[in-house]
Design brief:
- One of its GO terms (molecular function) is ATP binding.
- Keywords: Amino-acid transport, ATP-binding, Cell membrane, Membrane, Nucleotide-binding, Transport.
- It is found in: Cell membrane.
- The chain contains nine helices and twelve strands.
- By secondary structure, it is of the alpha/beta class.
- It has a domain of 57 residues.
- A six-stranded mixed beta sheet has the order 8-9-10-3-11-12, sandwiched between helices. A four-stranded antiparallel beta sheet has the order 2-1-4-5, covered by helices on one side.
- Helix 3 packs parallel to helix 5, helix 4 packs across helix 5 and helix 5 packs parallel to helix 6.
- The longest helix has 17 residues.
- The protein starts with a strand and ends with a helix.
- Bound molecules: adenosine-5'-triphosphate.
- Adenosine-5'-triphosphate (ATP) binds next to strand 2 and helix 1.
């Protein structure tokens, strides 16, 4: 049984009086592929944004790789983490965004080499070698010198995946990676994620509306509702035999016509 690499311990996230996550207990084991599904506004993206340190937490503790993410241990007490701690912790995670978030004024190659050089201090030659390997992995070797605007949405998202991998994260987060794409471009992105999931020992946590894909690649699927895990299980359990009425309602609404 592998160790948890992500742990949410009674995490609360509120914006003013509005509570998005309420006492959330959640974990992902090392190497596990976990998918979060659920209705709009249930807090799915917030979980990923907290892990990327793009959102703070209101209460509770998040652990990544055994260390508190948003806190530092000072003489046995957890205190709010400083920027240096956050920066160090962040290197364990990579994120693939819905809107790709590539640097538009940089070539594809530079999009992949910039952060490894600046943040990890990698040499130019090493960063370039690594970027070329990753572009081959996502099938974009011949587009290295293009700018993001010259690529299709599917190609841009494949660059987004390669860029996240360039930082050699232990954990890869995907926030609805195909929802900004035209339907005919979804398949090529899912193929890349499928390859990563089957051939690499990465821990993957994904928010997606692609139910069939979630069923195929996940070890575990969590159904979120109102900032909590309402039900979770293997894909066969959750999609094939959901136990709770709310899960059944959600699944029958989103899989209608499938
Ligand atoms: N900066 C913010 N200020 C106030 N409310 C916010 C902020 N960011 C998110 N929210 C609210 O928090 C709730 C959860 O947002 P989140 O993006 O996590 O939902 P989600 O489950 O990912 O939804 P979707 O499937 O629509 O992306 C939503 O109701 C959203 O409006």
């Amino acid at each position: 049984m592998s160790e948890p690499i992500i742990v949410f311990d009674k995490v609360k996230k509120a914006y003013g009086n509005f509570t998005v996550l309420q006492d959330l207990d959640f974990h992902v084991n090392q190497g596990e592929k976990v998918t979060i599904i659920g209705p709009s506004g249930s807090g799915k993206s917030t979980v990923l944004r907290i892990l990327m340190t793009l959102e703070t937490i209101t209460d509770g503790v998040v652990y990544v790789g055994g260390d508190p993410l948003w806190h530092e241990n000072k003489n046995g007490t957890l205190v709010k983490a400083g920027e240096a701690h956050l920066r160090k912790m962040r290197t364990q995670l990579g994120m693939v965004f819905q809107q790709f978030n590539l640097f538009p004024h940089m070539t594809v190659l530079r999009n992949l080499t910039e952060a490894p050089r600046v943040v990890l201090g990698m040499s130019k030659a090493e960063a370039k070698d690594r970027a070329e390997e990753l572009l081959a992995l996502v099938g974009l070797s011949e587009h290295a010198q293009k700018f993001p605007g010259q690529l299709s949405g599917g190609q841009q998202q494949r660059v987004g995946i390669a860029r996240a991998l360039a930082m050699r994260p232990k954990i890869l987060l995907f926030d609805e990676p195909t929802s900004a794409l035209d339907p005919e471009l979804v398949g090529e992105v899912l193929n890349v994620i499928r390859t990563l999931a089957s051939e690499h020992d990465l821990t993957m946590l994904m928010v997606t509306h692609e139910m069939r894909f979630a069923r195929e690649i996940s070890d575990r699927v969590c159904f979120f509702d109102k900032g909590k895990i309402h039900e979770e299980g293997t894909p066969d359990e959750l999609f094939g035999n959901p136990q709770k009425e709310r899960t059944q309602q959600f699944l029958s609404a989103v899989t209608e016509g499938d």
